[in-house]
Design goal:
210 residues, alpha/beta, 10 strands, 31% helix, 23% strand
């Protein structure tokens, strides 16, 4: 198997290539795509075989959950019924953007959600119409890919589709934050620094530029 590279720079073929990638996801394949931070891998979140394959490709422990990509911030309510105030502040400030929030579903389970600020992945989510389980495009513990060529070099024989949207803008991963009632814990340091998170919460900001 060799990954098919779909160039997204041509507007005449953009929509068709998004559909090809969406069909691949729906059939249980692994798709790589750009985000505003780094390149990511995605599979449909309700396909256990596809998820197992993604863990194998990443060489990632199943103790580390995959995140769910959502196309708009309102979709958070599909997963979490009661959103803590601190999470609401961070959502207003940094979504869409490079912030993954880990929220409690119930007393025993959590979900990681991200609303990315990137047209490609949002269009892909909307085309699939099924939640996409996602993780950065790298071997676990290694630096993530920041362009399509790096994905192809490292994973060409292990994944199915690479959406080539050019270099990722930030080149650093999203910040992952776990919400714990009225406070938070940074699980992975990324584009958004702790100082910005604290400033947002303390100043009750409403936009990323606040």
């Amino acid at each position: 198997m060799t990954a098919k590279i779909l160039n997204l720079k041509n507007p005449d073929t953009y929509t068709d290539n998004i559909k090809i990638a969406a069909d691949a996801l729906l059939s249980g394949k692994i798709v790589a795509f750009p985000t505003e931070t780094v390149y990511g891998f995605g599979v449909r979140s309700d396909n256990s075989t596809a998820i197992d394959n993604l863990y194998s490709v990443k060489q990632r422990s199943k103790d580390k959950k995959l995140s769910i990509m959502i196309a708009k911030h309102e979709d958070v309510t599909k997963y979490v019924k009661q959103i803590p105030l601190i999470a609401e502040k961070l959502i207003r400030a940094f979504w869409p953007g490079p912030l993954t929030l880990i929220l409690n579903i119930d007393d025993k389970s959590t979900v990681g959600l991200r609303n990315p600020d990137n047209r490609v992945i949002r269009d892909l989510i909307n085309a699939v119409e099924i939640p996409i389980a996602s993780t950065s495009a790298n071997i676990s513990g290694k630096a993530p890919a920041i362009d399509a060529q790096q994905v192809v070099t490292n994973f060409s024989d292990k994944i199915d589709i690479v959406l080539d949207g050019g270099p990722a803008e930030a080149g650093s991963p999203s910040t992952i934050v776990k919400i714990c009632d009225d406070t938070f814990e940074i699980i992975r340091h990324g584009v958004i620094e702790k100082e910005r998170l604290n400033r947002c919460i303390n100043e009750d900001c409403f936009s990323i530029g606040s």
